Structure formats: C-alpha cells, structure tokens
Amino acid sequence: MHKLSIKTRLSRVKWTKAVLIVTVIVFVFILRKRVIMKLRSQKVEKLIYTNILLAVRKMQGHKRFIPADKFTLKHLPERYQDKDLYEYIKIISNQTVRVSVTMTTPHRPDVWPKTTQPYPFHNMSNRRNLRTGSGRVKFINKYIDGFKQNGIIGRTDSALCWCKKCQDSDSPSNVWWEFYVHTATHVVFDDIEASHTTLRLFYDKDDSPVVSVDKVSLVGANIEYDSCVLKSVTCDKTLGEKLTIISEKYVNIWEKITNKYNDPGREYTLNFIVSHPHGCAKQISIGQRKYELHVYGGTKYTYTTSTCPGSSGANVLFVGYNDTWRFDVVHSGSLKSGLNYSGVGVFY
Ligand SMILES: *[C@@H]1O[C@H](CO)[C@@H](O)[C@H](O)[C@H]1NC(C)=O
Ligand SMILES: *[C@@H]1O[C@H](CO)[C@@H](O)[C@H](O)[C@H]1NC(C)=O
Ligand SMILES: *[C@@H]1O[C@H](CO)[C@@H](O)[C@H](O)[C@H]1NC(C)=O
Ligand SMILES: *[C@@H]1O[C@H](CO)[C@@H](O)[C@H](O)[C@H]1NC(C)=O
Ligand SMILES: [Zn+2]
Ligand SMILES: [Zn+2]
Mind telling me which InterPro entries this protein's record contains (predicted)? Predict the structure, then answer.
C-alpha cells in the first residue's frame, strides 16, 4: 500500500465526495426524469382512461344497444328466448346496411306534410355534407343477359350490369344482381340524393372488412309514410351469392316466425331494430311496441326501443303481426315524450 500524504488523502476524500455527489446528482436526475416520465405517462394514461371512461359513459347512455356480433339468445326478454326468433333477428341483422348520403337535395319540403313540424335537412346552406342512416336489403334478383334467374319481386330494364365499374368498362358483365333496400325518405329523399348514396353491408363490428356498393337508384319514395325504396346493383359474385343465401334464409325463418307468433290479440309486444347509430358498426336494440297511430290511411307505431341519429330508416320489426301484405315500417323519429316512432305501414 502506498503511503499517501494527508494532502493527497484529503484531496482523494474530496474527489470521492465529489464523485459521490455527482453520482447522486446524476442518479437523482435520472430518477427525477423517470418520475417525470412516469408522471407524464400516467397523465397520458389518465387522459386515455378519461377518454375510455367517457366512451364507457357514452356507451352506458347507449346501454340498450347490443353490438350485432355480441348478440345472444340471453339478450332477449325471457318470454322471447326462442331459437327461431333469435335466428330471425340475426337474419334481419345480416340484411341491415348503413346508408351514407353526401348530398342534400334542394327539393326537401320545409315541414312534414300537413303539419308545422320542420322537415329534416330542409334548406341546408351546405348541400355537400355527409349524413348516415340505416336500411335493409330485402329482395335480390340475379340476371343473366337481362333475364331474371330467381328472386320474388322486381324486374330490370338493363341488358348488362350497370354498376359503376361496368359503366366505365368496355366489357360490362352480363351476369349481375339487383337488390332492393328499404330506408326512410327523410334519409334518401329523391334521385339526386340516391345518386350520392353509398351502402355499406355486413358492417357488424369496427374491424369488419369494408363491403360497399356505390351505385344506387331510387325506386320510389313516399314522404308521408317516410318510406323509400332504393335499388342497387353488383356483379360481384361473392356479394350476390351471399345476399341471395341470406334472402332465402329470411323467407324460411319469416314463415316459421309468422306461424309461431300468430297473435290476433296483439299480445306480443316485442319490438326490435337493427341499425347503425351514429354511423357506427351495427347495433341491435330490443324494446316494446306501444301505441298505434292511424294517420295518412295507414298505421304509425310507437315503441321504447333505443335509437339514435343514424338509426333512421332501419326496419322496425314486431312479432305477432301477419305482415305479408304490409309495407315494412322504418324508424322515423322520436317524440318529445321520449317514445320513438316509425313511418307509416299500410295494409293492403
Ligand atoms: C349474420 O349475423 C350474425 C350475427 O349478427 C353474424 O354472426 C354472422 O356472421 C352474419 N352472417 C353474415 C353472412 O353476415
Ligand atoms: C332558406 O329558404 C328561405 C326561403 O325559401 C331563404 O330565404 C333562406 O335564406 C334559406 N336559408 C338558407 C340557410 O339557405
Ligand atoms: C297471414 O295472412 C295471409 C293473408 O291474409 C293468410 O293467407 C295467411 O294464412 C296468414 N297466416 C297466418 C299465419 O295467419
Ligand atoms: C327512444 O330512443 C332513445 C335513444 O336511444 C332512448 O334514449 C329512449 O329511451 C327511447 N324511448 C323510450 C321510450 O325508451
Ligand atoms: Zn358490374
Ligand atoms: Zn347516441
């Protein structure tokens, strides 16, 4: 061991002290930085958490919406926990589409017919905007060279596929499918709006693959009934066949349900709606039918079933109605009392 002078020793002690202090400072600095970073990430976490909380709270406001892919038999009131009914709702869900409209026609009236109630989106200063609603694919036909192959209702004036892709092509497909979509007139008002409409199909959850059609025409619209029928076209074989299978399943299950819930006394009050509230992924809501209002020579229904903006145009379905000869009714609006109401259904 070397013999060190006191001076050297002292300086060494000082040196060690200095190193220690520096180390401590560095350590504290790192620690502080870590703490700050931790606090910062906690802040971020908190922010995210607050957002999640907000979202959850929002969803709690929407608690009577069931995401379509999470729908189970148990979501039905006990009395209605029936496998056929469950299948029926799922098929209706499969037929439900989101309706997006990027144009508002100048032809909307200022008030609902024979009322002073303002009509939605009348007189919009900005006509190019995005609105969404809901709808349901009901009938589908397959055509080859203009000849109908199957399907119940409908005809075509076309000899070749008229989808956008084919219209821009030198060799349009000679095989195509045309399908009818029911929505509300206050969602798609006329030809102008129909030509700016896109339908998104099978949007069951946030990450569902995008399946959409952008060639839509107006078949008919009734302002009083708030009932609008659109026609769309596709030559996509996968889509055409999928919709055909769903349509066939629907016919089968509809027959079963109509026979099972034969209810002339109107005892069954179940009502359900499948829609795209706020343009989000498909949601199922279950509620009760309340009153019938006899207007415009038909029937409007009120119900307690949850709806939000974006649900308009969705089919409003009941059981126990033998509705072969009735127009399906669509969700039309909400009353001040909180009850939601449909467009008008007409019995032939
Ligand atoms: C039909 O809907 C059910 C539940 O809503 C879903 O699980 C199923 O994948 C859908 N089928 C099609 C063909 O979209
Ligand atoms: C709405 O229409 C009225 C008359 O039809 C017009 O005076 C008014 O400026 C319009 N408002 C907007 C926002 O376009
Ligand atoms: C439903 O109504 C149609 C037409 O009135 C009738 O032919 C059919 O038998 C009815 N079905 C049931 C289950 O009541
Ligand atoms: C009508 O729908 C709204 C929105 O989802 C809902 O809050 C309300 O409770 C519904 N009406 C009734 C009477 O339940
Ligand atoms: Zn085509
Ligand atoms: Zn909402």
Answer: Peptidase_S1_PA
262 alpha carbon, closest ligand: 3
Q: Is 304 in the pocket of ligand 4 (CB under 6 A)?
A: yes
CA–CA dist 178, 109 (Å, integer): 30
Ligand closest to CA 65 = 4
324 Cβ below 6 A of ligand 3: yes
Which amino acid, one-letter code, is at 236?
D
Amino acid at 330: V
Per-residue pLDDT of 105-133, as tens digits, reads 999 999 998 889 889 988 776 677 888 99
Cα-to-centroid distance, 110 and ligand 2 (Å)? 10
What are the beta bridge partners of residue 301?
292
Would you state the pLDDT for residue 325?
Answer: 46
Q: What is the pLDDT of residue 1?
A: 47
Q: Which stretch of DSSP H or E encloses residue 330?
A: strand 329-334
CB contact burial 179-198 (16+ within 10 A = b; e otherwise): bbbbbbbbbbbbebbbebbb
Ligand 1 atom 11, closest CA: 94
Asked if pLDDT for residue 21 goes beyond 80, the answer is no
Q: What is the pLDDT of residue 218?
A: 97
Q: What are phi and psi of 39, to 5 degrees?
A: -60, -45
Write phi, then psi, for 147 (nearest 5 degrees).
-100, 130
pLDDT (mean) for 34-40 = 66
Longest CA–CA separation in the chain, Å = 117
Pocket test for ligand 1, best of 66, 86, 89, 93 (most atoms within 8 A of CB): 93
Whether 338 lines ligand 4, by a CB cut-off of 6 Å, is yes
Count CA atoms closer than 13 A to 133's CA, side-chain side: 28
What's the pTM value of the predicted model, to 2 decimals?
0.79
CA neighbor of 307 nearest in space, from 291, 281, 283: 283
Local confidence band at 24 (pLDDT 50, 70, 90 cut-offs):
confident
How large a percentage of the chain has pLDDT more than 70? 85
Return d(Cα 185, Cα 347) in angstroms, integer.
19
Q: How many residues does the chain have?
A: 348
